[in-house]
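A quick aside before the break. I want you to see a complete sequence-to-structure record at least once, exactly as it would be stored in a machine-readable document. Don't worry about memorizing anything.
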Amino acid sequence: MRDRQKSSGDKPKPAFAAKLEEARVDLGAIIDFASSFGTLVLTRAYADWSATVNADYRGQLVGRAVDLVQLFPAAAYAKNGADIRLAVDAVEDLFRLPELTHVVVVAGDSDYVPLAQRIKRLGRYVIGIGVAGSTAKSLAAACDEFDSYDDIPGVAHDEVADDSADDVVEEAAAEEAATGTAAADAAGTDTVAAEPEADGDTAKTEPSAPARGSRSRRKRAPAEQPADAAEAAEPTPVEQADAELQAEATRLLTRALQLGHEKDDTEWLHSSTVKGQMKRMDPSFSEKALGFRSFSDFVKSRSPIVELDDSSTAQMVRLAPTRSRRARHSGRATDTVSA
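That is the input. The structure line, written in tokens, reads:
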């Protein structure tokens, strides 16, 4: 608390700012992980939000409807004010809301051991989240389950996963464009006019596909290329917004499947379970708003990274084996934490 007060006035020095950026926590991934245990009833964050180091997280927290509790430090030495307030509120909520079944404690300090023990005595399931190598073993032992922050689905590997997903979609679009090109060459002049229409359909889901298609057309018949083809290939603001929504939905589906595979050893997951997890992470998700009649149609559109088994009445889904991130998140924190 004292260090936070010192950095709350002016902007931090470049070296200090770089360290803060490296230590930045993905709160969205933690909230998504907590939602895998059930509906989130209470989500609170305790800090002095006037401090710059804490204020940088307000966007993430407000965007996920987290209650921000302002703590004004009463004295320079009152460094445990947030810990005490959090513990008192947690125990009070357990008595006030008997329907609470799980409590997620994100910390590595041994000061939270009494809180975890009390929660267990009250018959609740305690999940701890901490950083490997800096979490007290006593805290990990006091929890029913303890996970390393780096092993939470979506943390540290999120950018890699996003790039891989985008690459898969681009590869699929390129294959479709190549198929259309081969068909056009075989059909002659009768199919040349229909080719831009196929590219237009591809542009709705992947902006990069029309660019590749336009390059292939220029190589085949430079003289027949329309003058405004380059402008037509550029996505409009509406198409760009739609592409961003589609990409966000793909990331949401991928993270939901990662969480499902993390908690269940079965190879296939029920599609209803996956959709429920997606709705808990993002209540605004709707496959119909994305242009799909059903959730199964939405999953099929992500076939390069997701597989759907609808051979029985219960539809099952899983991450494609070649794109599965499950091995990256298979470690357990209790094996790596140290005092």
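Two observations worth writing down. Residues 87 and 339 are 21 Å apart (CA to CA). The chain has 15 helices and eight strands. We'll return to this after the break.
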